[in-house]
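TA notes, week 10

Several of you asked for a full example with nothing omitted. So below is the full record: structure tokens for the whole chain, then the designed sequence directly under it. When grading your own attempts, check the secondary structure regions first.
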């Protein structure tokens, strides 16, 4: 989304929709919501049909996509998926929902990690969802939304992009083959969340295929640290 018609001033409303346009979760589980989504999208008489039928029909994230082993470690691949009886619909939902539901127009804005105050909020006085500018947007500049403060791994699982400019936590560096090698080795070597000898041995074998030397070294150090005998 771009500021085509001129600059957008600070605190100016960028986009606004009435809450009635939201396709609400209504406290349903993901599977329940996906089932309702399928039913509503296939029903031309449903109020939300025009919006829902405009959404993608193909896989959008790892709810239905196979993890790329050149990027995911075995640990990451095991946890990449999003469990659902309706994986394609679950991917469409989780790649664009706002927690309370699916919101037309609002889901068209890309994410900007550097601007965590500009995100969609409910204006209770008008009963509308609003995205307000927190700074001046020059004409023709791209306008962003903020998708909440999630770690790099979660952003990749849900939205499919890797923001390697951000600080990576240990879980992300163990799950993905990215990050500072020295930090990755330490994260892997000192993992203490139920990982087993077999897990680390399997990680080494897979890491050899992709020249993931940080994983090889870190997993080897973990095995050495957790071996209760001296050679």
């Amino acid at each position: 989304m771009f500021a085509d018609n001129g600059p957008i001033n600070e605190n100016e409303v960028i986009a606004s929709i009435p809450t009635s346009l939201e396709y609400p979760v209504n406290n349903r589980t993901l599977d329940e919501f996906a089932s309702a989504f399928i039913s509503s999208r296939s029903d031309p008489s449903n109020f939300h049909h025009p919006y829902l039928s405009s959404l993608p029909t193909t896989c959008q994230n790892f709810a239905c996509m196979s993890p790329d082993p050149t990027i995911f470690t075995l640990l990451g691949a095991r946890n990449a998926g999003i469990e659902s009886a309706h994986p394609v619909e679950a991917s469409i939902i989780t790649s664009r929902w706002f927690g309370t539901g699916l919101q037309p127009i609002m889901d068209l804005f890309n994410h900007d990690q550097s601007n965590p105050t500009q995100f969609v909020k409910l204006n209770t006085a008008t009963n509308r969802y609003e995205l307000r500018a927190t700074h001046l947007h020059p004409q023709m500049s791209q306008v962003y939304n903020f998708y909440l403060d999630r770690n790099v791994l979660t952003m990749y699982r849900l939205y499919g992009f890797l923001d390697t400019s951000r600080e990576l936590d240990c879980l992300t560096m163990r799950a993905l083959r990215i990050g500072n090698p020295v930090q990755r080795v330490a994260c892997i070597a000192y993992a203490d969340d139920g990982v087993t000898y077999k897990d680390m041995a399997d990680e080494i074998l897979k890491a050899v295929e992709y020249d993931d030397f940080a994983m090889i070294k870190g997993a080897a150090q973990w095995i050495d640290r957790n071996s209760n005998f001296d050679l």
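The first strand starts at residue 13 and ends at 18. Use that as a sanity check on your answer.
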